[in-house]
Amino acid sequence: MKKIRLSKGEVAAENGLLRGEYISAGAAEIHRIARAISTRRKDAVLNIRVNSEDLSHLKQKAKKLGVPYQTFISEILHHYAG
């Protein structure tokens, strides 16, 4: 059987789970999360031209946050569209 290597974060989460630090979410909370995910589903494609320096800065900021740059840009658009 192949061994799975966990990241530090995954190991910490697993240890917390084993220590009983997490509790099950109730049905209402699960429904709220599922609804939030479904409303944020990306169902359109957008092609735009941007300044290469601006894109570089966005990529750097996304990297600092630990998220893909396209996700970061999508979140910025969502924030200003809402």
Q: How would you describe this structure to a colleague?
A:
- With 82 residues, the protein is mainly alpha-helical.
- The protein has one domain.
- It has helices at residues 8-18, 27-39, 52-65, 69-81.
- Helix 3 packs across helix 4 (69-81).
- The mean pLDDT is 90.
Layout: helices, strands, pairs:
Elements: H1 8-18, H2 27-39, H3 52-65, H4 69-81
What tags apply to this protein structure?
82 residues; mainly alpha; 4 helices; extended
Please tell me what the overall shape is: extended
- Biggest β-sheet description: none
In total, the number of domains comes to 1
The overall strand count is 0
Q: What proportion strand?
A: under 5%
Sum this structure up briefly:
The chain is mainly α. Helix content is 62%, strand content 0%.
